Amino acid sequence: MSEGRGERTVAVIPARGGSKGIPRKNLALLMGRPLLAYAVEVGLACPEIDRVIVSTDDPEIARTALSLGAEVPFMRPSELAEDKTPDRPVFLHCVDWLKEQEGYEFDFLVNLRCTTPLKKTEHVRKALELIRSGDCDSVRTVDFIRGKHHPYWALKTDGAGYGVPFVDGIEISRYHQRQLLPPAYSINALVDVVRVSTLLAYENLYGKRMRLLVTDPLYSIDIDGPKDLILCEAIMERIHELV
Q1: pTM of the predicted model, to two decimals?
Q2: Does residue 117 fall inside a structural domain?
C-alpha cells in the first residue's frame, strides 16, 4: 500500500486493439519495444502505485501486458473499445469490476497513456504529490504555451472566409510581443491523476478543481502516426543532451 498512508492508487493503461493512424498502435515498436512497455514500466517503477492494470479488449495486448508485469484482471467489453469511446466509462468499468469481483476499492486513479512514451516516473510522483495535498480533484500535466502557439495569436475564419482572432474579443495587435501574452497551457497527455470519488461524482474526469503540473515539452510527443515514431526515436537517442 502506498507509503503506509492507507490510500490506494491504481494506474490504468487504456490499450484497445484498434487504431487508425498506426495499425495496432499500442503494440507498435519504438526502439525495439512496444509502446505499451513504456507505460507499464513507468507505472511499475512508481512506489506510490499499488497496482498497474491494462484495460484492453485485445488478447495479444493482454498477453504482452502480462509478460511486462502488468495485471489484466478483465477483458474490456467491445462496446467500450470503439473509436469514439471516451476515457471515463473505461475507468468506471475498471473501478466497478475491481469492487464487484475482488472487493477492491482505491482512492486515486492514474491514467498512463501508451501514446506518450517519454513520460517519466518522476512525472507521476509529482502529480500524486499534488493531488495528495488535498486541495484538488485532479491533476493534469501540461506544456507552457510559448509564442506562436498561444491562443491569443491563433486565427479562425469567419462566415465570409476571412481570418479573425480565434479568441473572441481579443485584439492581436495588443499582444505583438510574446512577453505581453498571459500564461497559457496545453494538455500534453503525459499523466492524469483523478480521485475515484471525483470520477464517480462528476460527468467528467477532472471535477471542479484541477491542478496543473507543467512539464518539459520535450517529453510530451504524442504518437499518432508513423512519423511520430521516427521523431520519438530520434529524441530518445539524444535526450540526455537536451535535458
Answers
A1: 0.91
A2: yes
